[in-house]
Amino acid sequence: MFEERLYQLRRERGISQEELANTVGVSRQAVQKWESGASQPNMDNLVAISEYFGVTLDYLLKGDEANWAEPEFQPEMGEQAVYLPLNLRYEYKSSVTLFGLPLVHINVGRFGLHRAKGILAIGNVATGLISIGLLSAGLISFGCLSLGLLAVGALALGVAAFGGVALGAGIAAGGLAVGWVAMGGLAKGIYAVGGLAFADKVAAGGAAFGHIAIGDTVQGAVTFSIQDGGTLSSAAIRSAILRDFPTIPDWLLALFTAF
């Protein structure tokens, strides 16, 4: 019966009625009534339950065992075998925790949103110290949309950001890069290096626009341009940068004088 299958799924996942209620978006009393057979969830709640446990509606309502596959691994102590349904859903949560979070939480699947939250989190939506997912947020994050201290992704936002579009409070590198130091095809920052570079202080690139501009096509208060096979003097560039911006970090000074 439905109530027996729901109870079994919840116990196998190792969660309380309250945790399941929070996931589905109902009260604990509602889950209690479902498991006692006093009431049944509506279609929206059934879909949410099936997506969370990774089973089909046929299994929930009819008990169709064909919707289950064999476990992918034999559980060790403190681990729990997670059954993979036909919709290719997998979840693992380690029994070891740190700061109240599982050390590892993996929650991935072919359909729907699968949230992972842990020290190491891997999921469609992942939040953690280290997070990997389509949408990821954490100290170190990797994903299509990535937010973190160090962010890597198609769209990356962080103190250090690397991606197709990178927005960084510190360093940004990507096709389109905006940051304190920006490096990319199109770069905008206090300091910028790129095919097209705009900078408040020093810009270097194919086309450079800044107080000090270094490159082929340049515009600024102080310019260094390569025209018709000309060369640039590293000593002259170094002297000009140190004269106007004496506190520039050494590694940035080395970057610009390399031109």
From TrEMBL:
Keyword annotations of the record: DNA-binding, Membrane, Transmembrane, Transmembrane helix
Transmembrane segments: 119-142, 148-181
Lineage top rank: taxon: Bacteria
Domain HTH cro/C1-type: 6-60
InterPro entries: Cro/C1-type_HTH, Lambda_DNA-bd_dom_sf
Protein name: Helix-turn-helix transcriptional regulator
High-level lineage: Bacteria, Bacillati, Bacillota, Clostridia, Eubacteriales
